[in-house]
Amino acid sequence: MLSLCYLPTAGRLTVTIIKARNLKAMDITGSSDPYVKVALMCRNKQIKKKKTTVRKSTLNPVYNEALVFDIPTENIDECCILVQVKDYDKVGSNEVVGYCGVGMQCVGQGHNHWVEMLDNPRKPTAHW
User: Fold this and answer.
1) Best CA proximity match to 70, nearest among 3, 28, 9, 115
2) CB 125 within 8 A of CB 1
3) Burial of 44 (0-12, 13-18, 19+ CB in 10 A)
4) pLDDT of residue 49
5) Mean pLDDT throughout 112-127?
6) Rounded distance, CA 93 to CA 114, Å?
């Protein structure tokens, strides 16, 4: 579950990663060490990326972490965010558990969430 809030006067997008549930077990212990990575994309180029802290040994992590991105109002329609849930591994590369896109160029729920955010400036809109 994540919440989006856009402040047009400040050109600030706040992405609040609230929680996830029923994640796929990625470790041999039957659990995962998940974290969320959010990349701000504009015109198919990655502009900025941020991530949450790692939640150890859980398939139902709760984060409640806000990630803030600066996006000028004139560019908001050209931007989107790519949200990846990843499993932290001490050895080797971190595995992707799942991902989604949210923005005007996205389809389905990702598009609807972005439109709802733009229609309700300064109000957080949360979706699964």
Assistant:
1) 9
2) no
3) exposed
4) 98
5) 96
6) 31
Q: By C-alpha distance, which of 39, 42, 36 is closest to 20?
A: 36
Q: What is the pLDDT of residue 28?
A: 87
The 10s digit of each residue's pLDDT in 86-104 is 999 988 899 999 999 999 9
* Spatial distance between the Cα atoms of 29 and 14, rounded to a whole number of angstroms: 34
Distance (Å, whole) CA 104 – CA 115: 7
- CB atoms under 10 Å from CB of 74, counted, come to 8
Locate the DSSP E strands across the chain: 2-7, 12-19, 34-42, 45-51, 62-70, 79-87, 95-103, 125-127
Q: Tokens for 50, please give them.
A: 């941020």
- What are the tens digits of pLDDT across the range 27-85? 888 999 999 999 999 998 999 999 999 999 999 999 999 999 999 999 999 999 999 99
CB of 12 closer than 8 Å to CB of 76:
no
Give the whole-angstrom CA distance, residue 126 versus residue 115: 12
